[in-house]
Design a protein that fits this description.
9 helices; 0% strand
């Protein structure tokens, strides 16, 4: 484990970096599987899965964030009815997906346990942050190749010792308050889209 030798109190990391290693590994394995696909059908299924995860983490989570923000605003004024909760959920989904879906899930608020973790409001947001953070790290790893491994291990070892901004500055040399890192992450996420669209025309 990369955490061997790290003091116990320095092994406790924030939610926004909790799944950095697993998400990074998922991206590595997904890309390798796509490259090694032996048939067009297999490749298409793998690309679809990879892009579906991106949609879930970038759009579905955005819908949850919008819903939760609006719910808290509505709750300040009193009890929020089931009908209003359904409306808020539909509005959030339509906005997050830019009206692209044929079907929406107005009762999604009732089916997702994360909304009921009252000790951790906006529990969903760290997933999107963590996904893009990992995608940005992965984009950097692809640029630097094998030389990146030591930086990556040290970054993981420091997740419990530093704020994420300091972590990125120290190990990646990037400023997370600037758009460049995040744009590289999004570009990396979107890189499979042209091939997927070409294969599905």
């Amino acid at each position: 484990s990369v955490m061997n030798g790290v003091p116990p109190l320095a092994q406790r990391y924030a939610m926004n970096v909790a799944e950095t290693a697993s998400t990074f590994s998922e991206l590595v394995v997904s890309d390798a599987a796509v490259k090694r696909a032996s048939t067009k059908e297999e490749k298409l299924v793998l690309l679809d899965d990879k892009l579906s995860r991106s949609v879930a983490l970038l759009m579905n989570i955005q819908a949850r964030f919008l819903f939760e923000t609006r719910f808290y605003e509505a709750r300040k004024k009193g009890i929020v009815s089931v009908e209003r909760l359904n409306e808020l959920m539909l509005e959030a989904q339509k906005e997050a997906f830019a009206g692209a879906l044929d079907l929406y899930h107005p009762h999604f608020w009732a089916s997702k346990l994360h909304f009921y973790s009252v000790g951790t409001p906006f529990y969903n947001f760290p997933y999107t942050f963590g996904y893009l953070f990992s995608a940005g790290i992965y984009a950097r790893a692809k640029e630097e190749g094998a030389a990146f491994e030591d930086k990556y291990v040290e970054l993981l070892r420091d997740t419990g010792r530093m704020k994420v901004e300091d972590l990125a500055k120290r190990h990646l040399g990037v400023d997370l308050t600037k758009p460049e890192f995040w744009q590289a992450a999004i570009d990396s996420v979107l890189s499979d889209l042209p091939e997927f669209l070409r294969m599905t025309e």
